[in-house]
Amino acid sequence: MRFSGDGDEISWAEWQVLWSLGEKVHSTAKAISGHSGLTKTKISRAVKALEERRWLERSRDSHDRRFEQLSLTRSGAEHYAILKARAGDYQTWLDGTLDLPYLKALDDGLSGVETLMAARVPPERD
Questions:
Q1: Max CA separation in the chain (angstroms)
Q2: This prediction's pTM
Q3: What is the pLDDT of residue 51?
Q4: How many Å apart are CA 31 and CA 38, to the nearest integer?
Q5: 10, 25, 91, 123: which one has the fewest Cβ atoms less than 10 Å from its Cβ?
Q6: What's the 3-state SS for the chain?
């Protein structure tokens, strides 16, 4: 990802996992997959890569042993905070660089698409 620094470069799928855990949105690979729109395979590979970096850990769900609960390690939380700050800085840079009159409309439109995808509500047809 463009805003990651040297040695911290991660894939989009890894960022989705890191973000979900860092923001405490989802804590299972299946839920992250459903929210992000990425396949379970991509999310599983991202989980493995983050686990190898020691940025996350897995534990069996106490209510349903078929699932693993994912959580950030201390190192993972620190790296997430750094990457989140860099992402914010990059967004600020983009906002200043892309001096387009429709930037807000574009942002609103993309937010709407994200909301629809997260809710899994098919758009209405005219």
A1: 51
A2: 0.68
A3: 93
A4: 10
A5: 123
A6: CCCCCCCCCCCHHHHHHHHHHHCCCCCCHHHHHHHHCCCHHHHHHHHHHHHHCCCEEEEECCCCCCCEEEEECHHHHHHHHHHHHHHHHHHHHHHHHCCCCCHHHHHHHHHHHHHHHHHCCCCCCC
Residues in the chain: 126
Output the CA torsion 37→33→13→38 (10° steps): -30
Q: And the tokens for 77?
A: 């939380």
pLDDT tens digit at each of 126 positions of the chain: 554 556 668 898 999 999 999 988 888 888 888 888 888 899 999 999 999 999 999 888 778 778 888 999 999 999 999 999 988 998 888 878 876 766 778 888 889 888 888 777 556 665
Query: Smallest Cα–Cα separation from 33: which of 20, 50, 23?
Result: 20
Strand partners, 60: 68
Count CB neighbours of 101 within 10 A. 6
